[in-house]
Automatic annotation (TrEMBL):
Belongs to the class-III pyridoxal-phosphate-dependent aminotransferase family. The lineage of its organism: Bacteria, Pseudomonadati, Bacteroidota, Flavobacteriia, Flavobacteriales. The keyword Glycosyltransferase does not apply. Its cofactor is pyridoxal 5'-phosphate. One of its GO terms (molecular function) is transaminase activity. It comes from Flavobacterium flabelliforme. The keyword DNA-binding does not apply. Keywords: Aminotransferase, Pyridoxal phosphate, Transferase. CDD domains: OAT_like. Residues 24-257 form the Aminoglycoside phosphotransferase domain. Pfam families: Aminotran_3, APH. This is Aminotransferase class III-fold pyridoxal phosphate-dependent enzyme.
Length: 766
């Protein structure tokens, strides 16, 4: 049925005895019309289909009448009864039932049209909503006790539409906040005050005049739910398109609390409730797109909602909570006194003192959020260095997989279980066909230890060749093959069965950038070691090398280096081990594994760090031949290696990398980051070299580009200054003068731009 303007005019004349003109208005749910009588008095006429429960329409009428009879009377519409004194009229057309209502017209401008909004306006909105909720606190109606998808308490139902969000970044962001709602809000919903609320104080329903709130319209979203949701929704829409959204919300909360005092629990959840409303909106918009909706109201807040959700994740929830508390007159929950000194003192007492802590001014991290970290002081940091959280801190897909499995079963590997087989199949599918046998451990150190043990079983030799300045872990064997440790302070020196090869550093080393044969030339150093072993009637058991050098200086290996070295080592009878602990799983961008950049196939690959996104999981993957040799009668058993929870975690990480195309992201964002960093070199003489692949990046800092004197302690000052600006980076390299940049591979182009812009500003002072 199409309701024309002429039909509405006749309908009004019949049921209200009014002569009016009519204009069709846009609407989201019901049909809306603007009526004007002969004296220029205006009315709003609404028509609802039979899909609308008439008892719910009655509930709206009664709710508005309560408000119309209160001190807020002038801020709400009044119902105009029909000539039969009915608030809701009914007609039957083409065997369909329709319900109509006429309401008075409120003058004023819509909130959306206010270009400049003052803090007074935001506070006045809070005052108005608080006063309205005081009036309605005892209002009840059975029809308001309904399930409604736009009720924030039902936000987790939005997950069913999450997959309609096409952008990986946006879908991940929404999924993160849905997880946080489940974690932070859901357990507390039963303890929140409830009421019948308006539930839709958006920018098209609020009428204003300057700094004054004129009124609120459209009660079609009313529902009995948590009282604080009314405030959360108003904050959400008011924060849209604001460059300082938290300040906006603070003013609304301050005003609301003056009229309707909030409880500490309500204040503590408000940040997550606001995010929850945005999640509902974005999931619904994505679903509407999938249904080819042409209703502009279905998508009207999509872009600003995405922007606001991105702004929210950059706001430490502790900061938001604390600011809301202060706005309500509650005490601060941020301890700025000697809290850290107490922790440091107890740490020193109970924890080994050679466990280092980053930064001069220590940071206590309380929460992770994808590529962000939150401290206990309300600060947010962009994590530019934590490559362990490969797909992001608290990635919802990984978290949910872990939660489900740990709630189902976790035990050792002496029982049959699908997870370990499935993960081994999925993992080996990413590797060359020669690498087919998996052994699971708990850390990269343990995995490297096992890899050396396997190589010694296979070759019946003990000597191991490593690169100078290399680091392979913390076990006794790993320390023995890590010059970074055994040559460093407190080190025990090189064992006679360990041999250091030249570090293939094309910036500081013997063979430089521009030498097309640098890889082959550096590889010749293997001949020296192999010959020295032959003189002693020995052969190498293994050559182990990171496929991009981490502690060695964030160095990308010269072309053909590994191809030449592997050939020499294998000819001498040794096994070639690729340490992918810091490099693998798509980080280098163009390839999934670092060794693929060198066009080689290792005999053993060692995996760690990113494999479990921070969960203690690592692996050794080798050929059937080496695995058969290792199967010499001594059982390999690892209590936790390969347990069902670890395997579920590993599967989830692989799923995320594939589904969110994170290897592609690492390539694109990494290339952009490298280009931006390279562009800083002409501006800042302290930058000696920029190097890396994908999101494995190093920036070497020098005091002099000719002498290459390392910029120490300047680099430490730069790291501290970047931390104060909200960016976590670290140092590396034999001379401790290389900025280490290895963020989670969900790092965005915008993240990279923010980082480089701030680094540019910091370097300007050197």
């Amino acid at each position: 049925m199409k309701f024309t303007e002429s039909f509405i005019i006749s309908l009004i004349q019949e049921h209200y005895n009014l002569e009016v003109s009519c204009k069709i208005l846009n609407g989201y749910d019901e049909l809306n019309f603007l009526l004007t009588d002969s004296s220029d008095k205006k009315y709003i006429f609404k028509i609802a289909t039979e899909e609308h429960n008439p008892y719910f329409l009655e509930a709206q009428v009664k709710m508005i009448k309560v408000l119309s009879n209160s001190i807020l009377s002038e801020k709400f519409q009044h119902y105009i009864p029909t000539k039969n004194n009915q608030d809701i009229g009914q007609i039957t057309l083409e065997e369909n039932q329709f319900y109509f209502r006429m309401l008075s017209y409120l003058e004023g401008d819509f909130w959306i049209n206010q270009k400049e909004k003052s803090s007074s306006l935001f506070k006045n909105l809070g005052l108005f909503l608080g006063e309205m909720d005081v009036v309605l606190k005892d209002f009840k109606h059975p029809a308001a006790n309904r399930y409604y998808e736009w009720d924030i308490k039902n936000v987790l139902e939005a997950r069913k539409n999450l997959h309609y969000i096409k952008s990986h970044e946006n879908r991940r962001l929404v999924a993160y906040f849905l997880l946080q709602f489940e974690t932070e809000v859901t357990p507390n919903i039963a303890d929140l005050r409830t009421a019948v609320i308006h539930n839709d104080a958006n920018d098209y329903n609020i009428l204003v005049d300057g700094d004054r709130i004129i009124g609120l319209i459209d009660f079609g979203d009313m529902v009995h739910t948590s009282l604080v949701n009314n405030l959360a929704i108003a904050c959400t829409y008011a924060m849209l398109n604001s460059e300082k959204p938290l300040e906006v919300a603070i003013q609304i909360v301050r005003g609301y609390h003056e009229k309707m005092a909030l409880t500490p629990l309500e204040v503590s959840l408000l940040y997550y409730l606001i995010a929850g409303r945005l999640c509902i909106s974005l999931c619904q918009s994505a679903y509407n797109y999938s249904m080819d909706s042409t209703n502009e109201h279905h998508f009207i807040t999509e872009k600003p909602a995405l922007k606001l959700l991105d702004q929210l994740i950059r706001i430490n929830p502790l900061k938001a909570h604390n600011e809301f508390r202060i706005a309500c007159g509650f005490s601060s929950i941020i301890n700025t006194s000697d809290n850290h000194e107490t922790i440091l003192k107890e740490r020193k007492q109970y924890i080994g003192n050679n466990l280092s802590i980053s930064y001069n001014k220590k940071v206590k991290i309380d929460k992770g959020a994808l590529q962000y970290l939150y401290d206990d002081q309300g600060n947010t940091f962009l994590d530019c260095v934590n490559n362990v959280s490969h797909v992001g801190h608290c990635h919802p897909t990984v978290v949910k997989a872990m939660q489900k499995q740990v709630a189902t079963l976790n035990t050792n590997t002496r029982y049959l279980n699908d997870n370990i087989v499935e993960y081994a199949k999925r993992l080996t599918a990413t590797l060359p066909k020669e690498l087919t046998v998996c052994y699971f451990t708990n850390s990269g150190s343990e995995a490297n230890d096992l890899a050396i043990r396997m190589s010694r079983h296979f070759t019946k030799q003990k000597d191991v060749i490593v690169l100078d300045h290399a680091y392979h872990g913390t076990s006794t064997t790993a320390i023995e093959m890590s010059p970074y440790k055994f040559d460093g302070k407190g080190g025990f020196g090189k064992m006679p069965y360990i041999h250091k090869a030249q570090n293939p550093d094309m910036y500081r080393g013997e063979f430089k950038y521009g030498d097309n044969n640098a890889g082959e030339k550096y590889a010749k150093d293997m001949d020296r070691i192999i010959v020295s072993l032959e003189i002693q009637s020995k052969k190498p058991a293994a050559f182990i090398c990171e496929t991009l050098l981490g502690v060695g200086g964030q160095i990308a290996l010269p072309p053909n280096y590994l191809k030449e070295v592997y050939a020499k080592v294998r000819k001498a009878g040794g096994v070639c081990i690729a340490d992918e602990v810091q490099v693998g799983f798509g980080r280098v961008g163009t390839k999934f594994w670092g060794f693929e950049l060198q066009d080689v196939i290792p005999d053993i690959v060692v995996l760690g760090k990113p494999i479990g996104n921070g969960h203690p999981l690592a692996a050794v993957i080798t050929t059937q031949e080496i695995a058969d040799a290792f199967n010499n009668g001594m059982e390999y058993f690892n209590t936790f290696g390969g347990n069902p929870v670890s395997m579920a975690t590993g599967l989830a990480v692989l799923k995320v990398i594939e589904e969110e195309e994170l290897q592609k992201n690492a390539l694109e964002v990494g290339n952009y980051l490298l280009e931006r960093l390279e562009a800083l070199k002409p501006k800042h003489n302290i930058i000696g070299d920029v190097r890396g692949n994908g999101l494995f990046v190093g920036v070497e800092l020098v005091k002099d580009r000719v002498t290459l004197q390392p910029a120490v302690p300047e680099i430490d000052q730069i790291v501290e200054m970047m931390k104060e600006r909200g960016f976590f980076i670290s140092t590396d390299g034999p001379l401790y003068n290389v900025l280490k940049i290895k963020p989670p591979i969900i790092f965005s182009r915008e993240n990279a731009a923010d980082f480089v812009d701030n680094l540019d500003a910091v370097l300007a002072s050197f």
